[in-house]
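User: quick one, fold this
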Amino acid sequence: MRLPQKLSTLLSCFVVSCISLFGAGCSPRNFLTRRLAGDLIAAAEAFKAPQLFWLRSGVISNKEFSSPEMMVLKRRGWVVGNEQKKCPIGVDPAPCWDVLLTPLGVDTVRPLISTAVPDAGTIAIQAARREMLGISGISKAGNFADVEFVWHWVSLNQVGAALYDSGVRYRSTVAFRSYDDGWRVVEQGVSPSQPLEDALRNAQPAAP
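Assistant:
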């Protein structure tokens, strides 16, 4: 079946325009769509880096012992603290607490240990990772753009599930910059807008 003359002409012009664009060095990365922005953010090292939870044992201050994270560990029966009337030099405010892993805590934490700080009683646990939920807006200005996106935590283990609520969504805004080979996420401060690492650190809870 032959196409109408006018439609055939329009299609021919479209094909020629596409060939000209890509012949001039264009690529899909030259057009900052929501899909491209989401893919580039999700592939960035700062976004993919797992969230480390640093668990300290030994004598710690009352402020640290009363932190929300430590309260969760105590409720789970993973740690206990013995009150110390006198704090070591440099550890305050009093009272201080000598924190120990319970047998249940040892069984829970031991398989998850990724890094230990020698002689510091500190262990690092990979607790959660970020997951992209979507791009909520793109604002362009020349070779720069601000991309607003929504993400949440996905737990990697029991500790992550206890500390990071996957139901809480976070909203961040990150800078993009257009180069000769297309758009890239700004991972270091080279524009008036914030780079990805700062965008994730400054994320705000978002409504579902």
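User: anything notable?
Assistant: Residues 28-49+129-206 form one domain.
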